Amino acid sequence: MATVWTREQYVVGGGTGEIALIALSSKKLPDPLPVSRGRHGMPDEGDGANSVALVARDRADDPAWFTEQVVAPFAELIASDLGPQHAAAALNAAHAYVIEAQLEDPDDLGHVQAAWALAKCVCEEGADVVIDVYAARAHLGSDVADLSPDRSFDIMHEVTLFFDELPDGKLAAWSLGLRKFGRPDIVLLDVKPDDATEAALMLRDVAATLASGERIEPGDAVAGPDGQSFTAERFVAEDGSVVAVEGDAILLR
User: Would the pLDDT of 116 be above 70?
Assistant: First the structure.
């Protein structure tokens, strides 16, 4: 059995931790699935194992709905992350396995761990692609099947960093995936292109701090990796039209 992923800086009062994974498969998988706590990394402490659920969806039950609601929304993402061949295979998937977990203000990350344990099992049984919905990332099923069941928490496996150009030539940078930890995503605006690496490090470090349980509220001061000080504000979509975040987000100005 796996040791639960802890939150060493946990502060009470966060939001709901939510993770959603969609595994696409060309073949129907066993029911019930042969989930093993030891082999797949299901945590043996906390509420994580009891918070996760899996629902199977079959294309044959409603082909139009399956295409429009399950596959098509992620075709571009899969093509971007994994290439057109895998995107084409995903579009033709016959089965989808939706893995979700939710915990109110979680004091550990067992719900995230449990979701990936189920995904690992599903992929060992033959799923081709896994979509991490809130992090907007696609994984090869073979890579998920190869995840070590006793691995340590890795923030960059759970969060994706995005950059896009603003009308004035500067960059916007933001995270996706902090919803898993009951924390808002982080946005940086007016990043000079030469400072993109420093911005990525800033987002990574803040994301790791929030995953470990710390909270950032509007008005808080946040130190960057180079010692620069930022002030947290509530992000308003009109401030950065290219930024694609859902739900609450914090702008570091």
Answer: yes
